[in-house]
Amino acid sequence: MPRIIWKGAISFGLVHVPVALYPASSESGIDFDWLDKRSMDPVGYKRINKRTGKEIEREYIVKGVKQDDGDYVILSDDEIRAAYPKTTQTIEIEGFVQAPEIPFVYLEKPYYLEPTNKGEKVYALLREAMLSSGVIGIARVVMHTKEHLAALVPSGAGLVLNTLRWSNEIREMGDLQLPAAGKKAANLKDAELKMAEQLIGDMTVAWDATSYTDHFADAVRALIQRRVEAGKTEKVEPLESADEPATSNVIDLTALLRQSLGRRKGSSPPRDTTADDEAADRPAARKTAKKAARKRAA
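Predicted structure:
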């Protein structure tokens, strides 16, 4: 299981159910990196001034909200944090509704809830009461300094918290060119409707989530595997290789060690006595070579 991202309690009336919140979904698509096709260098996001085209430092960036007249309201990070809803540790149920009343377009992201601090019995009580009543809870919860509307849904032995979009986040369909509602208004024939209903009946099956997979991601992975097997890959040099030791290019290990010791002690490197010894040995070596040459000539 993934790590706990929130701890608190479900509150309905005066009853509190201590719970821990876990993410119930994960991203499974292909994660593409941006590369410069000329050099295969990684390409990252930069803070660019759109007027000058120059990169700017983070310290010079402020947050502004554009107004209708074109002016901006500038807000500091402290002001924004102060305006956020205060962190709470409660999933506060405000009411219960029938599940079909919530349109699918409102569903956002699911989370699993696990009972904590000996809350198993009251957790089961809430779950079974909701199941027998055929309802789901509508609640508010604050996560990561943001308030969410959420649906609390009993699912098997567990409770699932599914965050919902706020009503003002849903776009209306009024501007779309849609056919009129109703079969007469849409000019549909009874025979056409009957055949369509028959086809739907033939295609109706029991829901099984495991029978549906991401065909696009699978096709891209298969393409990647074929390229790997054919040896059609590109070498990308990492921007930083401090974590991976490079191939040794040491010419004089003694000199490098001596320099390293000098830097560690904060003083100049120790004197190279090896070089002095070699210099001292050179005259003797020359004399020995001359004697050998005279013997060979004799």
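Summary: Residues 241-251, 273-281 have pLDDT under 50 and may be disordered.
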